[in-house]
Amino acid sequence: MANGAPEEDGRLEFHPFSDGTERGYAGGSDDVAEFNAYMASFHAAGPRSVGQLVDALAARGRPVSRVVYTLMLPWAAGVASALYWIQPVLVSAIYHHYFHGYAGVIAEQYRRGDPSDVVELPGLAPLAVRDLPIFLTESTDPGDYFHTVFLTFRDLFDTLDRETSNSKATVLVNSCEELEVGALAAIGPHDVLLLPIGPVLPTGDETSMFKQEDATYMEWLYGKPANSVVYVSFGSLATMAREQVEELPAGVEESGRPYLVVVRKDNRAMLAEEDETELGERAKNGMVVEWCDQAHVLSHPAVGCFVTHCGWNSVLESVASGVPMLGVPKVSEQSTNARLIER
Questions:
Q1: pLDDT digits (tens, 9 = 90+) for 180-191
Q2: In 275-298, which positions are buried (b, 16+ CB within 10 angstroms) versus exposed (e)?
Q3: What value, to the nearest 5°, has the Cα angle with vertex 83 and ends 160 and 342?
Q4: Where residue 164 falls among pLDDT bands split at 50, 70, 90?
Q5: Going by CATH, does the domain composed of 216-342 fall within 1.25.40.390?
Q6: Per its UniProt record, what InterPro entries does this chain match (predicted)?
Q7: What is the spatial distance between Cα 71 and Cα 65, in angstroms, rounded to a whole number?
Q8: Which of 83, 180, 187, 334 has its CA 20 to 30 A from that of 194?
Q9: Distance between CA atoms of residues 131 and 335, nearest Å
């Protein structure tokens, strides 16, 4: 993040802090060294820049009493803190067991090479290897692109263990008992204090990290029958191959259903100019947009199906709106989320 002036909405202040780089991490590259260098810079600069921010707030008469930090930021626990787990409790339980005696069990099943092999972990329903977070299977290999992420999760659970040795660590989870009562019970009450505070959902008027297009897609939705529209979106981070960008709208078009497909600007960038023009021209029974307000779209009565990458925020938004999902998991814990949806 770049340094800059804080933003306010009347209740919250947003203070940027430095990640130790001039331009951040652009993503979309297969360069492992570049990714690892960025993560190393972030871990080195993060404690210093956040510490400076905390000191500055204290000097203004606004001392920080607790830091709530999310995944990939274990260094933040140096201040009075509570981890905010933004994935399902099920995923947290899998990581917890992996780093507390079950790494060998998972590694052995993964080495066999059969994604349908079953892994049994205490308190959890049996899971196939393909349903596990990839950071605990593929990314344990030091040569894997996301190996640094695996190491960061390891550091995160080491941090929780150190906190628990003095007093029980607090973990806020974006879920609720009605969705995950079994997973909540799978982590022993003496390990950490799990506090379900979810589902945490957007209000629909929050600022997006992407530029908002005009809302013609909402006007278009109002002209469609109830439960008729297929909505397709793979989130704010997942990248798509050129063939996927070209074929996804074409495939939904052939279904004969009205559809709304999100293809982000960075994914469109790989297309030639004429191909990008054709992307919109081929949409005879639907719309292809660069961005949309997902909370508003999913709550619209015309939407009857959500084709999703199974990011946890998207899953919760769909559950809240009562829209059936078709899962196309891609990375991270999304396969685990898809299994949770299915159950």
A1: 999 998 987 667
A2: ebeebeeebeebbbbebbbbbbbb
A3: 100
A4: confident
A5: no
A6: UDP_glucos_trans, UDP_glycos_trans_CS
A7: 20
A8: 334
A9: 5
DSSP-assigned states of every residue in 149-172: HHHHHHHHHHHHHHHHHHSPEEEE
Which of these ranges, 16-25, 26-35, 95-104, 114-123, has the smallest mean pLDDT? 26-35
* Cα within 13 Å of Cα(178), Cβ side: 6
Alpha helices (H) along the chain: 32-59, 89-97, 103-111, 147-166, 177-186, 216-222, 242-254, 265-268, 273-281, 294-298, 312-321, 334-342
Q: How many degrees, rounded to 5, is the angle at CA 125 between CA 119 and CA 131?
A: 55
Residue position matching structure tokens 């992996």: 98
Q: For residue 107, is pLDDT > 80?
A: yes
Give the tens place of pLDDT for each residue, 208-257: 544 555 579 999 999 999 999 999 999 877 777 778 878 888 888 898 99
Taking every pair of Cα atoms in the chain, the longest distance, rounded to a whole number of angstroms, is 62
Q: How far is CA 56 from the centre of its chain?
A: 31
Integer angstrom CA distances of residue 146 from 70, 97, 124, 132, 331: 18, 20, 26, 15, 10
- Predicted local confidence at residue 46, as pLDDT: 78
Say yes or no to pLDDT of 179 above 50: yes
70, 128 contact by CB (below 8 A): no
SS3 95: helix
pLDDT of 343 above 70: yes
Element at 289 (helix H, strand E): strand 286-289
Q: Which three-class secondary structure state does DSSP give residue 211?
A: coil
- Indicate the pairing of strand 13-14 with strand 7-8: antiparallel
Where along the chain do its domains lie? 1-64, 89-196, 216-342
At 97, list the tokens. 């067991």
